[in-house]
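RECORD CONTENTS
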Amino acid sequence: MADNAQTQTKTAINEDKIWTKDFALICMANFFIFLGFQMTLPTIPLFVQELGGSDQLIGLITGIFTFSALLFRPYAGHALESRGRQFVYMIGLGIFVLSVASYSIITSIGFLIVMRMVQGVGWGFSTTATGTIATDLIPPKRRGEGMGYFGLSGNLALAFGPALGLALVDIISFPQLFLICGSLGFVSFLLSTRIRYKKIEASQHKAATIKFDIFEKSAIKPAILLFFITVTFGGIASFLPLYATQKGIEGIGIYFLFYALFLMVSRSFAGRLYDAKGHIAVFLPGTLMIVTAMLLLVWLPNSLVLYIAAAFYGLGFGSVQPALQAWAINEAAANRKGMANATFFASFDLGVGVGAMTFGLIAASFGYSFIYLVSAFSVITSMVIYIGLLFKNGRTA
């Protein structure tokens, strides 16, 4: 009897264990692909300027990437359930590596736009897959906490990627930088070959191939809320380096470092808070911090305020994003987790793309500071919608 009790206890512990070999591998693979991506985030606008592009073109080139990812996420979501996790993930990683490496030979805006669209396809496939793979590996009872840990791999990349990209572009050429970014993606590809992936059952394969749709209905509410929040990211990724330069403020690389560090701080407790009390405990405090960050950027008198804005943005976004993702996944049926992730990240892409394109026009007409005022109102819209959902559904949304 005692032996059986001990065996059952060990089994329960193993079933609730987050940090397995496969989970560590997917986190490492996610880190390297995000590092390569984050190094291009603040440098692509500079590259567009070097090619002779305007603010409108910077917004277009940022937006076209995210819209390309958005269009292909439904295909990725269905392929995850019909062709398997490994197939989708490795295809996405391969496309990403080749497209980013191709930037090293680009000499025209037109060619860059085409390859940004190709990169978006790879990004859409790989990030939809990696979120689903992580979901497979995390015990359901600890999903909020586990997704928080998984998100840290991307946050670590964000802590170093933008600053590293900006530092390298001062000492090496853009072609050399893009080859390094492609090589980091290739490391992710190699790590992906070592992961044991969830097998697709025959019944699940049949369910995924009978019907093709473009979103998971149960993930719509968190996806809509996310859209209005990630609009802010379009303004930061595309125009904050240019805005800081215009105002004569140094330390934009440190901004991204501070943002990532405080993102990691929030991830250390927000996931557990979500598991214990639900999204109601993290959403409104998190979005309030994001609004504060945007208003600080509107003001932006010096580097200190820039860093304080980074801290608020990191704490807020790091609290809200994993809670919304866990909400989207938990509401979906077992054979719809891939589509739930696809819907969630499609909303992310749409917010960034709409933000980047819209803010390119706003910057040209009203200046950079107006971007962040509009961003603040976008997040307030998300807060209003959330409060409406609480009242409509008896404070459970």
